Amino acid sequence: MQFRPNPHLSLLVGPNGAGKTAILDALDLVLNAENRSNQSLITEYDFTNCDTSKPIYIEVSLVDLGEIRGEFVSDVQWIDPADGLLVEEKGIPPESNCHREAIVVAFEAFLDERSGAIEWRWLLPKFPATSIESAKELSRSQHQALGYFRLRPTISAGTFTFGHYSVLGRHLKKLQYRLGKLPKHLRGQSVLPTCTLFDPQCSDCPSRSDCIPVREDEVPSSSQNSLPTIGAVLNEIVTGARKMLNSSEWTEMQPGLGPRYGGLSSALAALTVGLRHNSDLNQAFIPFDRLSAGEKYALSFALAKAQIPGERPPVIIMEEPETALYPSAISVLLRDVQSIPSGKEPQVIVSSHSEAVLRCFIPDDIFIIEKGHSPQKLMDAVRNINPSKGHFQKPEYLIMPGGPSVLFADKVLVMEGARDIIISGHLDRIAAKYAAVSACPHISFAMKGWCVFHAFGADQIMDCIRMFQTLGKKTAAVFDGDDTGRKYAEEVKDICPTFVYRSCNYKQPALEEALLAGLPTDDAKQILTEFDNCPACPLGAPRRACWTMGGKCPKGSKDDRKNLLQNLCLEAYEKQNLFPSAFKNLLQQIDSAVPGKVYELNADQ
Questions:
Q1: What is the Cα 190 distance to its own chain's centre?
Q2: Which sign does the torsion angle of CA 206, 207, 213, 219 carry?
Q3: What ranges do the domains of the chain cover?
Q4: What is the pLDDT at residue 600?
Q5: Residue 69 vs residues 59, 102, 121, 503, 551: alpha-carbon distances, Å
Q6: Cβ neighbours of residue 113 under 8 Å, at least 6 residues apart?
């Protein structure tokens, strides 16, 4: 089986038993340096049909080596990105302009016939065994430098202890913090640590020097205040988890430090992250072990993200995040990954059975796996079919947002048509890219926790709003700026925040005009040339009539022409790294808007 994931994001989907977990386990066996201390890593049950006569062999090629290249000076090979094969296997000389440097790491497990025991090792296949020398093995330091993190539905409680070999401990040691010399404010022997993560008092703490990184040269006292303390690093991780969860419990309680095993005595390895009650900071503490699965997952993801870029952009594996996180938290997590600036982003591989996870990805990031076959890219399958019409021409339909996820959302934005929902999914991805290439904050429907739902026309929005309010959800509505939309907006405004599109350049703007109005003039004109001389439009009619009037033409039906215009606009926004003005104004106002008035969304650039 072969799997060539995308450089940044990959989603594995398929039926139960297809092999998703097997692929993640294979990557884990090769890349996870923690496996070196597992004395029962491989048993006979891990071999196919328990047949130990056939060894296990897994090979992983890593590119974008970054700073770790120095660990593998003599082990670097060249790979052809077109097919993922080593150039030496293809019998061609390496060329720096078309081939890429790579490290190939392998895991091998076999039955030792002499001892009768199962043995395993990590190899560098560039140097295979010969009659004179054994195969070259991967050293522990090389293994730890690879950069790897796996987020499981159930997270090990030891992940967030301060032990030297925990995931958190190794991360802090890599940043050159002294784990063996933590001050009593942080360690607390007979009482809980008095240092809190919610409001660290590092600037005037007498033990600050014990909480800053160790440097090769002694740090002048004048520079110590500029160095981050352990508390500051932990606070950043906890803040990331708090942002993802958006939980009332994390607002009512303070994240802090305390004993892992209960009681008040805490040794170094038993100190862990958890929650402390605001009302009783000296007694009450909920350790990491007692946090919910979602809270553990959020903290572990925040820790994984804290290692970016690290020694190299890490490989992060997320196994069925929907089993620990609710849909809106998953959206925040994945959009957070998508908004990481180019060049620093990790390689993230996700497996899932959830529509909520599926809708966070573009079709080009989705891999379909069937039992007995290697994963196949969704878009490759579509291209092989080469459809001339129908939904497969635009695979976004296959991952259309809205649907049943609205039942899990806290906030619901109701819009007039199904295309509004598809557009909102596109806009969330554009918002993530916009945040990655600009200094602007990342704002999107998912980031603000709004699920977009479509009614079947403006006259149906009132009933949708009433139903969702009955279910206890916060609601808002968006109408087109035409006469019909404004009429129903006046009826709905008294029960929820209500918005309509407005434009000085287009009369009675609907979704299409709202997208056009936010583009630079030249881009909008270029898009409109697609509709010149449309046979469906009466002679002399304005060009906008093409996507508002019925009739057929070479560009298809009225809906086909609307879809074409919308897609052209979205492509222009993505190319120009812009975000539509109407939706930017909507996202800025939606949480603070109140019922009783109709808010106008200025769509003009």
A1: 41
A2: positive
A3: 1-17+314-399, 32-145, 156-216+227-306, 400-602
A4: 95
A5: 19, 9, 22, 54, 62
A6: none
Q: What is the pLDDT of residue 392?
A: 47
List CB contacts of 439: < 8 A, sequence separation 6 or more: none
Q: Are strands 366-368 and 411-415 parallel, antiparallel or unpaired?
A: unpaired
Instruction: List the beta strands (DSSP E) in 369-440.
Output: 376-377, 411-415
408, with CB counted inside 10 A (0-12, 13-18, 19+), is exposed
Would you state the structure tokens that stand for residue 554, as one six-digit string?
């070479």
Could you tell me the strand order of the sheet in which 271-277 lies?
253-259, 271-277, 286-287
Paired with 246 in beta bridges are none
Tens of pLDDT, residue by residue over 462-512, are 888 887 787 678 899 999 999 999 999 999 999 999 999 999 988 889 888
Tell me the per-residue pLDDT of 115-142, one tens digit each, with 9 for 90 and over. Answer: 889 999 999 988 887 778 888 999 988 8
pLDDT attached to residue 267 = 53
Letter for the amino acid at 121? R
Quote the mean pLDDT of the chain: 81
Nearest-angstrom CA–CA distance, 394 and 566: 12
Cβ contact 174:318 at 8 Å: no
Q: What is the pLDDT of residue 300?
A: 85
Q: Residue 297 is which amino acid?
A: Y
Q: How far is 325 from 331, CA to CA, in rounded Å?
A: 10
* CB-CB contact of 191 with 264 (8 Å): yes
pLDDT tens-digit readout, 521-553: 988 888 888 776 665 565 444 544 577 776 667
Q: How far apart are the first and last CA of the chain?
A: 50
The neighbouring-strand residues paired with 107 are 58, 122
Q: Are 368 and 376 contacting, i.e. CB atoms less than 8 angstroms apart?
A: yes
Separation between Cα atoms, residue 185 and residue 206, nearest integer Å = 10
Measured between alpha carbons, how far is 210 from 227 in angstroms, rounded to an integer? Answer: 12
Cα separation, 311 vs 71, in Å, equals: 11
Lookup: tokens for 116: 């009768």
- Its sign, for the CA torsion 10, 13, 19, 21, is positive
**Given pLDDT bands bounded at 50, 70 and 90, which one contains residue 349?**
very high
- Per-residue pLDDT at 283: 56
User: How far is the C-alpha of 230 from the C-alpha of 56, rounded, in Å?
Assistant: 41
* CA separation for the pair 561, 79 (Å, rounded): 44
**pLDDT reported for residue 59:** 94
* Joined tokens for residue 412: 């619901």
| Integer Cα distance of 229 and 211 in angstroms | 5
